[in-house]
Amino acid sequence: MAQQQPTPEQIKELQEKIAKMSPEELKEFQKKQCIFCHIVAGKVQSRKVYEDEHTLAVLDINPANPGHILLLTKEHYSIMPQLPPEVLEHVFLVAKKLSNALLRAVDARGSNIMVANGVAAGQKAQHFIVHIIPRREKDGVVFELPQRQQNEDSLQQIANELAKSLGAPAPKKSAALLPDIMERIKETEHKDHQERKRKHERVPAKGADAPEKPSPAAPSGNKGEEKEKPPKKQPGGDINLDDIARLFGAKK
User: Fold this and answer.
1) Which of 39, 105, 111, 126 meets the CB 3.0–4.6 Å disulfide criterion with 99?
2) Is residue 245 part of a domain?
């Protein structure tokens, strides 16, 4: 038999009742209606994989991938801003631990750690949840984010509004875009390399007529001059902090 739906009058009465509730009464009302609070209380069956003073982690019964974990706060919070700072910090430390455990347990190659914070962001349950989803290549789980073009003025306006909201000074507009900076750094690096090469090729003032002694490391039969090897690239790419400092006029 299908469950009877509430009438418009009953819905209106409930809305008026909720509107008159204190924050404490509203939170208690939400807990009674929350399926995840029932899971925390043990009233609903679940597959628990982790538990501590503040959190409970269970396997999602409809996972995006096998091993998909739902990390719940034991106390009822609807959205992230309601969590006390110490609880929020603890939740994400646990998320890190569970993500590392998943990599080994299900032979995953990565993980998504995500929160749907608010209805507009896709939140379906009125309980704060961190999703920890193990990932493999070509697993069919797709998070496609659109890449929209935005002009400099619009970006600067958003940055200013964020700074105002955070109580921070208004950010200064960058002097150059990143591609321009990278190109200038490469040009500076090339000029420095050419300068070092010229210094190595200069003939010393004293003993210029003296025959050059063969290098101990060079084979005895090799009379040709050894070509200068290009400088080794530093780990992390072609660009280092010295290059950036020289670009902006810093003196060593």
Assistant:
1) 111
2) yes
Q: Which of 43-57, 83-97, 205-219 has the lowest mean pLDDT?
A: 205-219
Instruction: Count other Cβ atoms within 10 Å, centred on residue 188.
Output: 16
- The string of pLDDT tens digits covering residues 10-44 is 677 767 777 777 777 767 777 788 999 999 999 99
The predicted model scores a pTM of: 0.61
Six-digit token string for 78: 């609807």
SS3 content of the chain, % helix, strand, coil (to 5): 40, 10, 50
Q: Which domain holds residue 38?
A: 12-135
- Domain end (from 135, 154, 178): 135
Q: Which residue has the higher pLDDT, 234 or 121?
A: 121
Angle in degrees, CA 9, 15, 19, rounded to 5 = 145
Same domain, 108 and 187: no
- Claim to verify: residue 102 and residue 177 sit in the same structural domain: no
